[in-house]
Amino acid sequence: MYACAKFVSAPALVRNSSRLLCRPVSASLLSRPEARTDELGSTSAAQNNLFQAVCREVHTSSISRDIDTAAKFIGAGAATVGVAGSGAGIGTVFGSLIIGYARNPSLKQQLFSYAILGFALSEAMGLFCLMVAFLILFAM
Prior knowledge:
This protein has 140 residues and is mainly α. 84% of the residues lie in helices and 0% in strands. It has helices spanning 2-8, 11-16, 18-22, 25-30, 33-39, 45-58, 62-103, 108-138. Helix 7 (62-103) packs antiparallel against helix 8. The mean pLDDT is 76.
């Protein structure tokens, strides 16, 4: 945002290249360099160099990329916490199965089917958390 503010407020650009400022910033910065020099044909070489220097400030620096990478790792670690919750859920499900079976052994088949359903749902939540962590790491 700061680099965009500097781009718009550069006095030489405001005075001499109003056509460039009417275009969106992304169209001005992402077009080919030879196309930019054609549009700036009426400006001097010093102003053209100023424009190129301002364009260089908008590009992502290595420090910004490092911060983005660190944020990815932190987000993926936070998303992985759900896998621990899945493990706790599976333990709770099978612990309850053992307690239920100890209280009423005649319901063994029905309790086991409920336990498998609880296991599947708990494991699915853990896998979703893991999927989100991988999406954060590799898709963004």
